[in-house]
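FIELD: query
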Amino acid sequence: MVSNSGLKSASYSKTIENVSEEDNEIQLFPNPFTVEVNLRIGNPELVRSIEVLDMLGRQIEIITQGAVQKEQSIGASLKSGMYIIKINGVDKVQLYRLVKK
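FIELD: result
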């Protein structure tokens, strides 16, 4: 479109598919934990990988896209301490702090 002043303008729109809250939901419990932590993912297809990191950011464990399940347990091999669970999604990254007693 060209206005009377000679300036050109344009508009752009995009429809974004709605993602239900349930599909996007991540649950980690119990926290703190002693043996394993349970991980529930609303829609595992939206998760590319799950990383367990120490507090220095070093990768301790990784679960890649094909192995991500709706419900799984992680952390059995971890020593006592604080950890970060990094969930790399299709459109976002989520971080959770965990404590193993």
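FIELD: remark
Residues 9 and 62 are 48 Å apart (CA to CA).
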